[in-house]
Amino acid sequence: MSNREFKILSPTAILGYGFPESSFLQGIKENPDLIAVDAGSVDPGPYYLGSGKSFTDRVGVKRDLRIMLREAIPRKIPVIIGSAGGSGAKPHLDWCEQIIREIARQERLSFKMGIIPADIDKSLVCKSIQENKIHPLCKNKPLTEQTVEETSYIVAQMGTEPFVEALRQDCRVILAGRAYDPAGFAALPVLLGYNPALAIHLGKILECAAIAAQPGSGADCALGILKENSFVLKPLNMKRSFTRTSVAAHSLYEKSDPYCLPGPGGALDLREVEFTEIGDGQVEVKGTHFIPANPYTLKLEGARQVGYRTVSIAGSRDPVMIAGINSILKAVEMHVKEILENEKIDGYVNTHIYGKNAVMGELEPNPSITSHEIGILLEAVGKTQENANTICSIMRSTLLHYGYPGRISTAGNLAFPFSPSDIQTGAVYEFSIYHLMEVSQDQLKRLFPESVVQI
Amino acid sequence: MQKQITELAKVIRSKNCSPFELTMDIIFLEKADYELVKKNNGINAKMLAAIYNVCPTKINKVVYFDPACAVKICMDRPISSGAPGDTDVYGAQQHGPLLSILLDI
After folding, report:
1. Structural domain tally of chain B?
2. N- or C-end of chain B: fewer Cβ atoms within 10 A?
3. Which residue range is the domain that position A369 belongs to?
4. Which among A151, A157, A256 is the top mutation candidate for probing chain B, defined by the most B β-carbons within 10 Å of its own β-carbon?
5. Burial class of residue B7 (count of CB atoms within 10 Å of its CB; 0-12, 13-18, 19+)
6. Tens of pLDDT along A57-113?
7. What's this model's pTM, rounded to 2 decimal places?
8. Any idea what the CATH number is for the domain that residue B50 is in?
9. What is the ipTM, given to two decimal places?
């Protein structure tokens, strides 16, 4: 490995969230060796992975990619995109590929692109269950073949290896399905012989772009400079600087343990890390170690459909109704349950009372109501959309006209802000797979089969 | 002497750390206060279980992280992120009860 620095430009925390063009061009002036971006997350919930839709907006994603490709391609700077389309399954990957092709056509750009899917074959997952190679995370139950069958898409978070393979084939742009967030940032430096622990740790910070700066932002660029024994974080916007505390605090962000960050094939060990301010808003980081895992494991993610949802939003400003809301809801829910059973309608209602415990549910230590008004959100879940509509309608109309004890306001119990009052929200999903899968080195080579296309 | 945690911490936040877990971060303003709280184990699983009215086995980790003068908590979600009945898909508004913690300083 040469002693030269390796510079990585991270435009934004999630592709499509945007960034100031001036910050990006400031980054381009630094002559980066790589532009990498994370395009996904499980944060927005199971719907997006389960339905194959992106949680990011097409216009936003196209805008970000257009600026990146327009500046990078003529300068021969590689562009790497991980977790395409938000959730990184096949439909998300295809969605993002179409956007890239459109940009290339419109901007007259030509390049070699590697496309790496992250979908894992259901038969392999079932075989791995039989071989006892699937392990639950976070107190989940052991995975069953039935759950695998019910899950719409199963993806694995890929590590650096599939990116390295695509880089070896001289791809200028790499578009990957679900990936471990730092993998796309770390692959090229790892291929060039830089310290993998430092490269992955740098990727772990850069995947959030300027969130680790002060003031933090997920919609602004940041630069990472990898050296032989350390890396440096550099802001690209005069408004921000990295500080010892801002970078150290970022090690906590969305992690369960700040000292040990597990990923594909091993964990980052941060116990000996030192953060040092070196001036001009820059922070130098050293002392990161990598502890390889044996056997190599990948994290699987999957979501399954559990029905359809219809919601209704209303409010109450009646002190008698508010004081009695718990027993009123109990009585109305009983009444609705009876109708559903008699009519053989498959489903149920969850009621969220804003002003009481709608934000924290059963974790709320103080469910007493002190406000003069409350928000009432009815969430009906049914086996079909028609079921959900019917359940929501029965619950809404029963609650609207329910004659509770002490009632003075006899014309109607609810204030609806909208007509129609009921909103169909479509299919409902839940995370069904969040497990580790043991893989052999041979398997690993075949799990993420990249294809190379000329754009 | 007891002090309100909001006088001692500059950041108190919550977020998912997986679809099945919540994590809370408490970042202290002063290293001396952090060191004292760490020494007394002032923020601990038993206290957190009481605050959130859950069984102590639901509190998975309480880690003191020196480089950021921070305490990190990891606990189970009652319902996985975005499943029917969930109340906070990102888990970003589960920190409120922590603001009323009193600490011996």
Report:
1. 1
2. N
3. 304-431
4. A256
5. exposed
6. 999 999 999 999 999 999 999 999 999 999 999 999 999 999 999 999 999 999 999
7. 0.94
8. 3.30.70
9. 0.94
